[in-house]
Amino acid sequence: MSNEIKILGFSGSLRKKSFNSAALRAARELMPPGAILEIADLSMIPFFNEDLETEGVPQVVFDFNKKIADADALLIATPEYNYSIPPVLKNALDWASRGANKPLDGKPTAIMSASPGMFGGARAQYHLRQVCVVLNLQPLNKPEVFIMSADKKFDADGNLTDEYTRGAITKLLQALIDKVNK
Ligand SMILES: Cc1cc2nc3c(=O)[nH]c(=O)nc-3n(C[C@H](O)[C@H](O)[C@H](O)COP(=O)(O)O)c2cc1C
Predict the structure, then answer these.
(1) Which residue has its alpha carbon closest to ligand 1 atom 18?
(2) Mean pLDDT score of the chain, rounded to an integer?
(3) 116 lines ligand 1 (CB under 6 A)
(4) What is the span of the domain harbouring residue 151?
(5) Which atom of ligand 1 is closest in space to residue 14's alpha carbon?
(6) Beta strands in the chain (DSSP E)
(7) I want to staple 145 with a disulfide (CB 3.0 to 4.6 A). Which of 71, 112, 140, 152 is the partner?
(8) What's the rounded mean pLDDT across residues 39-45?
(9) What is 141-162 written as a DSSP string?
């Protein structure tokens, strides 16, 4: 069996040119040796509705929950929408919070956010941290990665060009790996 640490990443943005999704791709590149990042796509997860649960959990939700369960840790990249997390992210977490299996329970989690604004999505991160309490996710407190002025930190192809931010993401990934190894 491989000792490689498996990290599951997901972005709260479905936008093709999303800065948050681009930050996740940068994290995949910057991942220290011994760990891999798989990026989950939230675009096909339907809006949560208890009737869907009653009919049978959609396959796409089942698959997402399994990816979470199989991962050693999570990396969440969230945009800030009106000072909070976007519905796409909350919806995915709501689905994953249901049922007996509780894949999120106790999962080490790193959080980052990107915004063209000057706070880099900080307010959304603190809302997300509040949600982590009830889900019993285990978020890293530090380092905090707020990618502010994100429109100036990525090139037209979505490559992260800002050296400071590359360093900050690398430190976040290392801290997550250290938490898994503890
Ligand atoms: C509905 C909506 C609300 C937004 N509210 C905020 C906000 O409160 N703070 C902020 O910094 N940016 C806000 N923005 C701008 C987003 O940060 C920006 O669209 C960003 O690029 C979204 O992330 P993405 O690039 O990963 O899609 C908002 C955007 C939308 C669509």
Answers:
(1) 115
(2) 97
(3) yes
(4) 5-181
(5) 27
(6) 5-11, 35-40, 73-78, 108-114, 138-139, 145-147
(7) 112
(8) 98
(9) -SS-EEETTGGGTB-TTS-B--
